[in-house]
Amino acid sequence: MRRLRPSSTPPSSSRTSDWPRAWPIPIRTTTTLSPTWARFLTQRADSALAAGLPAERIVLDAGLDLGKTAEQSLTLLRASSTLAALGYPLLLSASNKTFLGKILDLELTERREASIGAAALGIAWGCRIVRVHDVKGTCRARDVPRRRQRGPVSTPR
Q1: What is the pLDDT of residues 93-141, one digit of tens each?
Q2: Across the chain, how many H-helices and E-strands are there?
Q3: Average pLDDT, integer, range 28-34
Q4: H or E stretch covering 103
Q5: pLDDT-derived band at 18, boundaries 50, 70, 90
Q6: Got the DSSP string for 32-100?
Q7: In a 10 Å sphere around its CB, with 0-12 CB exposed, 13-18 middle and 19+ buried, how is residue 68 labelled?
Q8: Is the pLDDT of residue 35 over 90?
Q9: Which domains does the chain have, with CATH numbers?
Q10: Could you tell me which of 82, 79, 118 has the C-alpha nearest to residue 98?
Q11: CA–CA dist 156, 81 (Å, integer)
Q12: How confident is the prediction for the chain on average, in pLDDT?
């Protein structure tokens, strides 16, 4: 899988004001975060297509924690459904991230449950690729809604 990263120079166009000055994109407020990031990811996907990369090889990644505050990463996690609607598979990489530790006051070794919860939310909100540390626990959390969709579960006697 190839991850898209911006080059250090803007694409040739007359509208360079939307182009980030450096990687990662400096995001100043959470109110404009989701539309700004969606626009940026769309531009990167368009650049990849223009360079000849087939659409089925493109995966979008919001880049949680990468140059972002805990609040900004949480906002991007919440915006997963918006980002997933851009038409490409969305990668979620929230496992053990610093933003989980900051919002819940957890050390790195205490983030297992928070990571599983973030993955479950991301999956419910449209993320189709998930990087995790606890594969078994995350798969169990992923399967809960699937089991519910199949109908009622019989109770043990």
Answers
A1: 999 999 999 999 999 999 999 999 999 999 999 999 999 999 999 999 9
A2: 6, 3
A3: 60
A4: helix 98-104
A5: very low
A6: THHHHHHHHHHHHHHHHHHTT--GGG--EE--TTTT--HHHHHHHHHTHHHHHTTSS-EEE--TT-HHH
A7: buried
A8: no
A9: 54-149 (3.20.20.20)
A10: 118
A11: 36
A12: 82
User: Which amino acid, 98?
Assistant: T
Backbone angles phi, psi at 129, to 5 degrees: -130, 130
Give the pLDDT of residue 152. 64
In whole angstroms, what is the distance from residue 35 CA to residue 5 CA?
A: 18
Q: Which two tokens stand for residue 75?
A: 């906002």
Q: Assess whether pLDDT exceeds 90 at residue 84.
A: yes
The terminus-to-terminus CA distance of the chain in angstroms comes to: 47
Residues in the chain: 157
